[in-house]
Design brief:
single chain, 318 residues, alpha/beta, Arc Repressor Mutant, subunit A, D-Maltodextrin-Binding Protein, domain 2, 7-stranded mixed sheet, two-stranded antiparallel sheet, 12 helices, 11 strands, globular
């Protein structure tokens, strides 16, 4: 069987998928270790090959068109199969290497996992890691079912029926687009106002959603969502338009906050933060390679916290 004419390379499809996941062409370029102009050229070549416009390129950033979202949807099974193929071939070459199955929430996978796995590789290069990515509820389910040896999730509370350890914390920020009325206000937003305002929400099962829900329900039942979106990239793109406010990880919003495509709004009477946790089955506590990864992740997060503390002290603030 031969491939249909015009079938694109997997690498450029992987790049387009990264744009969808991270919400910007620049972030996708950094993930793939190339410059933004090079990434733009590759996407442009893909558009010519497919004869479709995949990105809306604007001064405030690039977002996927409806065709682009469909192409990403079609590409995901191909990319997943490619990863499975590569992992299978690697296993044939090194049948005796230890293999660690882990699962992580999307934020942790994109912004923490590379550092944790880098620390593991420095001390235990013989360990092969297979990573699945989903929202926190999916990760917990994979661990409960024994499909992952160790999971990493985010949220306000530890999951039921699993043991857990807090690794670190993650700040959440309230953001709006420059055209939203809140972008021009001077007073912080109260929890009561937030609860009464339709927000952009992640899908049920998201650790971000669980954290925000717990904060808002201390005041009253939250208003119906302005939209429920299944990816951070979609929330970022929608928030930039000023349609509605969103609450999301500072790790994900930093680029937009720096460029001014999103505006941070202070919250008066709540601390918006969530915990990063490792989770595992009670009957299978971390041992050998899972314990080694857990140790590496804990060490990296402790170093991050102590580095932040030193920076604050050097700045003369408290």
């Amino acid at each position: 069987m031969t491939l249909p004419p015009g079938t694109p390379d997997l690498e450029v499809l992987d790049l387009l998928t990264s744009v969808a996941e991270l919400g910007s062409l620049g972030a996708a370029a950094r993930r793939h270790g190339i410059t933004q102009p090079a990434a733009s050229q590759r996407i442009t070549a893909l558009e010519r090959r497919l004869r479709l416009r995949l990105l809306d390129r604007r001064p405030t950033g690039s977002t996927l068109t409806e065709a682009g979202r469909k192409v990403v949807e079609y590409a995901r099974p191909m990319l997943s199969a490619a990863h499975a193929f590569a992992a299978g071939v690697a296993a044939l070459r090194t049948p005796d290497r230890p293999r660690l199955r882990i699962a992580a929430s999307k934020t942790i996978a994109d912004h923490r996992m590379s550092q944790w796995l880098g620390a593991l590789r420095e001390t235990h290069p013989e360990v092969t890691v297979a990573l699945e990515v989903g929202n926190s509820r999916q990760v917990e389910s994979w661990v409960r079912l024994g499909q992952a040896d160790l999971g990493f999730v985010e949220g306000p509370n530890p999951p039921t029926e699993l043991d857990a350890r807090i690794l670190g914390t993650d700040d959440l920020v309230l953001v709006v687009g420059p055209d939203h009325p809140w972008a021009r206000r001077h007073a912080p937003v109260t929890v009561h106002e937030l609860a009464a305002t339709p927000l952009l929400w992640r899908e049920p099962g998201s650790g971000t959603r669980a954290t925000v829900w717990e904060v808002l329900t201390t005041d009253s039942d939250p208003a119906r969502p302005a939209a429920e979106l299944g990816s951070t990239a979609a929330i970022l793109a929608t928030a930039r338009t000023g349609v509605a406010p969103a609450i999301l990880s500072r790790l994900l919003a930093d680029t937009d906050l720096g460029t001014g495509t999103l505006i941070e709004i202070p919250v008066a009477d709540a601390v918006l933060t969530r915990n990063f946790r490792a989770v595992w089955r009670r009957q299978s506590p971390p041992a050998t390679h899972t314990a080694q990864l857990l140790h590496c992740a804990t060490r990296v997060e402790q170093n991050r916290t102590s580095g932040t503390t030193r920076a604050v002290q050097a700045d003369g603030t408290s």
